[in-house]
Amino acid sequence: PAAKFCKLWLDADATSEEKLEAMREATKYHSAGIKLAASGQGIERHLFALMKIAEKNGIPTPDFFSSTAYTKLNNTILSTSNCGNPSLRLFGFGPVVQDGFGIGYIVRDSGV
Hints:
Layout: H1 2-10, H2 16-38, H3 45-56, H4 68-73, E1 78-82, E2 101-105
Parallel strand pairs: 1-2
């Protein structure tokens, strides 16, 4: 859904309605993933925890943790964070990887 949304957003021939529907679809999909992650059911969190436990206890980790797939999964190029504190005027959020971007935002009644 996210790729479809991005492609439509950049498509000069796409209508506003198509873009809005694609955004809704991508947001719905993303929200479902966030709910899973918040409940500890994220797709990679249990693997990350196992890796950290092994590292802390000197236990060798399987080759999977150095695989291209796992490395890509954990290279979060775009990391975002919402600050819900209405008393703040500005908010910053740094990248979590060297080649990444961090975007902090505050949702207000009058805008983002």
